[in-house]
What we know:
Structural class: alpha+beta
Order of helices and strands: HHHEEEEEEE
Strand content: 15-25%
Amino acid sequence: xxxxxxxxxxxxxxxxxxxxxxxxxxxxxxxxxxxxxxxxxxxxxxxxxxxxxxxxxxxxxxxxxxxxxxxxxxxxxxxxxxxxxxxxxxxxxxxxxxxxxxxxxxxxxxxxxxxxxxxxxxxxxxxxxxxxxxxxxxxxxxxxxxxxxxxxxxxxxxxxxxxxxxxxxxxxxxx
Length: 175
């Protein structure tokens, strides 16, 4: 550390001698250069590509994105239409099946010469499309239908409730 101290003393003394010899202020040094240096910089794509080229690229991008979006919506709407058609076909098939079943029961009743004697007999219960239906006197009925003047109120697993003249009648499957 003494070496640094000695060098500092020498520098101060030499400055003091110069100031005693010259009563003039120290020389003004030119200011440091504040303008940026002119080092070569790599040219960017925007420096070389004209505006009309960027416009063409933008339009091309918009057309491609628009065609993808249009294709997506066309495919989506086509699938939606196909689903609606399939649902309509399923409804028509179910209606045709029920009509065919009703014709078969009517033909069976006609061939057996079933007469309505006034006494109701529960022949069976089954479920179609999640809704229970009953076979009473060989006629297919569901809740809300009428057998003569009696209304079918509810169909259970092994019984049917009928309502007539303020009374509830329960039919059960008989062996």
